[in-house]
Amino acid sequence: MNFHKAPVNNVSEVTINVSDLQKSLDFYQEVIGFKVISQIGNEAELSADGKTTLLRLVRPSNPMNQHRTSGLYHFAILLPKRSDLAAFLRHLSTKDIRLGASDHAVSEALYLDDPDGNGIEIYRDRAPEEWSWNDGQVHMVTEPLNVQEVLKTETGEPFNGLPEDTVMGHLHLHVANIEEAVHFYTKGLGLDMILRFGPQAAFLGFDNYHHHIAVNVWNGVGAPKPDKNSTGLNYYVMKYHTAEAVEKTVENLRELGYEVEETSEGYFSEDPSGNRVLISE
């Protein structure tokens, strides 16, 4: 089952604000392994395969770095295989980077921040047949990653950038109110509740994926929206795979009272905490 291409809807691309475009480009190429597709003015598009944009960097006119707001917790880059995670881990060991590592039962993940503190997860999924479900909710945990077991899968090939089959795996967001966020993502965008961590966090996905979107209130209930010039999330793309699905989603959002703006790229809306989404086919 491929949860990141048609017919499954998915987060296909994320745009973040950065304070120093060149510094960020150096980091995302040298540390993360992206390729630059284009750089025009204060924007750059990054890719794993040289063609498909996964991450867009934007330097706002007056960048600032705000804390304890809604917005980006992390975006997550999904690698095709466990051996790719091993190669990435070995690559990171040559850099002076602060790193977190977790086993989530459904996946194995590494965590780090870019120069502006934007959160990044690099992970690989276990096969869906290995996931456990209890009363319709997927079993997820946060336990230490068995780094030695991961490294045993190394092929001996040096890290040479992100594999071409790398995709944007999911997006995890700070929100001001869990119930309001869940309402927007389930009733508006059409995701299913996959796992609920009480009043603190919710994991939502299409077609029983462990999560395409996660939301939390770890920056505080009622966390304010960031300034549009703040580093962090600018917007993300939620890709639907038919024009009918896009139209139905837009109709749902408008009926629920959410604002939707039609543009040449698609339809922009935002969740109640100000996280902007581009609804696109």
UniProtKB/TrEMBL annotation:
Source taxon at top rank: Bacteria
GO molecular function (one): dioxygenase activity
Residue ranges occupied by any VOC domain in the UniProt entry: 10-125, 167-281
InterPro entries, sorted: Glyas_Bleomycin-R_OHBP_Dase, Glyas_Fos-R_dOase_dom, VOC_core
One Pfam entry name: Glyoxalase
Keywords from the named record: Dioxygenase, Oxidoreductase
Family matches, as PANTHER family: CATECHOL-2,3-DIOXYGENASE
Name recorded for this polypeptide: Catechol 2,3-dioxygenase
Species per Swiss-Prot/TrEMBL record: Lacicoccus qingdaonensis
